[in-house]
Amino acid sequence: MSFTRLYQRIAAHPGGPVWFRSWVEEVADNLPGVVAVRDSKNPDGPKLVFAPAEWRAFVGGVKAGAFDRSA
Question: What pTM does this model have?
Answer without folding.
Answer: 0.65
